[in-house]
Amino acid sequence: MKTFGNKKLTLIIFLSLALLMAVTRLPSIASVVGLHNASLAVFFLSGFYLRSIFFPLFFAEAALIDYAAFMGGQSDWCFTPAYLFLIPTYAALWGAGRWYAGWYRPVWRALIPLGLTLFASASLAFVISNVSFYLFSGYFVEMGFGQYAIEVAEYYPPYVARPFFYIAFVIGFHLLAEVFGRSKRFFARLVPGASR
Known about the structure:
The protein is mainly alpha-helical. The protein has helices at about 5-25, 25-35, 40-50, 55-70, 85-105, 110-135, 145-155, 155-190. The chain has one domain (about 5-190).
């Protein structure tokens, strides 16, 4: 979906997604609001709604939030050489959102490829992040890959399911905006001067 023709809408979407990431990624805030990390959904949605320039901005935001959390006393256990593989992890979601944007049509049946695209990209992100953590974190020298896969398998369902919560919310909001936009245009045609 191309929003970059409308700078105001692009700015609103960028700021909304940036705020969503900040509120759900920073542990001190996320624990208060009670929401899970929305980073996967943010990258998918930024791919869908925004231009390529926003990918590095969101990655920089994620890294700065993590750094702030580490400096604030959160465990830095995940901050290893494997951390760099969050770039392809998030790129998988961003690229899937970008791909779906080219395919998107405002019809209900478009929800099926959306669900499949989100599922596949979140699954790929899970594999990238966990395999890279196994290979490059330095924590699993003694553990075989099969055992590691068994250990992390329990995290797969929530990892893949959580972005669906945020995407469902955005879909609802997106559909309401489309309906409101159509009804506003329809009303403007019926009543001259109504759109002023």
